[in-house]
Amino acid sequence: MGEDAEAAAQTGRAPLFYSEVETAALLGIHRTTLRTLALDGRAPVEPIRLTQHKRVYRRVDVERLAGLRQ
């Protein structure tokens, strides 16, 4: 997890979104692969574009796909 996610976990608040790096790590793929899939519209979870070059992913979607949640 990234620093923001770790800080949220320590305060008892779960993050609503994961960064591209955090999402890729949880899914066991490289961040470049995730970015390429997102740009092609084939990402395993739907990205939310914050800017042209920054995407975040919904925590519940990522954790469900990673098998951490049902």
Question: What this model shows, in words?
Answer:
- There is one protein chain.
- This protein is α+β, with helices and mostly antiparallel strands.
- It is built from 4 helices and 3 strands, in the order H-E-H-H-E-E-H.
- The chain has a 3-stranded antiparallel sheet with strand order 1-3-2.
- Strand 2 and strand 3 (55-58) form a beta hairpin.
- Helix 2 (20-27) packs across helix 3.
- It is globular, with a radius of gyration of 12 Å.
List keywords for this structure.
70 residues, alpha+beta, 3-stranded antiparallel β-sheet, 4 helices
Tally of separate helices: 4
- The neighbouring-strand order within the major sheet is 1-3-2
Oligomer category: single chain
Question: Helix and strand string, N-terminal first?
Answer: HEHHEEH
Helix content: 40-55%
Task: Identify the overall geometry.
Answer: globular
Summarize the model shown.
The chain has helices at residues 3-11, 20-27, 31-40, 59-65, and strands at residues 17-19, 47-49, 55-58.
SSE blueprint and pairings:
Blueprint: H1 3-11, E1 17-19, H2 20-27, H3 31-40, E2 47-49, E3 55-58, H4 59-65
Antiparallel strand pairs: 1-3, 2-3
Helix pairs in contact: 2-3
